[in-house]
UniProtKB/TrEMBL annotation:
Residues 176-271 form the MDMPI C-terminal domain. One of its GO terms (molecular function) is metal ion binding. Pfam families: MDMPI_C (PF07398), MDMPI_N (PF11716). InterPro entries: DinB/YfiT-like (IPR034660), Maleyloyr_isom (IPR017517), MDMPI_C-term_domain (IPR010872), MDMPI_metal-binding (IPR024344). Residues 20-158 form the Mycothiol-dependent maleylpyruvate isomerase metal-binding domain. This is Mycothiol-dependent maleylpyruvate isomerase metal-binding domain-containing protein. Transmembrane segments: none annotated.
Amino acid sequence: MADRPLTQLDKPDVLAGLFAVWDSLDALLGGLSESDWQAASPLPGWDVKAVVSHIIGTESFLLGIGAPEADIDVSTLEHVRNPIGVMNESWVIHLGGESGTSLLERFREVTAKRRKALESMPEADWNAATTTPAGPDTYGRFMRIRTFDCWMHEQDIRQALQQPSSDEELGGQAGELSLDEMSTSMGFVVGKLAKAPAGSRVLFELTGPLARTIRVSVDGRAQVVEDFGGQQPTATIRLDGLQFTRLAGGRPMSSARSQDVELGGDEDLAGQIVKRLNFVI
């Protein structure tokens, strides 16, 4: 941990995003019929009910509630690839027999408890080192990852129901925090996954409500930078911000937004990066 400083994040800022996505999910799920809950999501083997069960399971874990025992060996399922996947699937199976209405009540109950716990958490604990899905970092970083995870799953559910987010909804705090979180992995994507050569300067231009610019410079190792020091990018990738999040999450693109991906400069490298964008567990 010595070579990587801990990520200090503003607690009210992150909690505003996390609570906003929970509110958005609550509103979305509140209008569903039982058949809607069984709509297939873009995630293999999971319907809407399974996605919500996963969110409930993770927040339960963060309240100190252990994963239920499944009556099958979930590690043998094709879409379960790691210990986190085993925990997720245990909750999905455990809650699979519940009605949508009952599941929504569980979601409301667990997120209400988590809100109270997070709001009363002292700043020292928020900024303290802990184990996160991205390695050792602050609890605050973990909660930004939770915001990103819940927001991604909201988009999964919306895709399943063919109820895409409006531009205004996409431009909210949760989407911004999710992109903040995803941006931190672009050095890994460009350097490690796409193996961009030394001297590469890669520019991601995201358009639409989630518009932003992400720059990655490969100098020794690939890392996200504020600017290229007056130099031009060697490769550019331009696409809609939501579609960027779908590709980075290993999901199919949304049919609700432009699916154009424009490559510039070293197009072979840019294309290689797009192919390797999926970094999410």
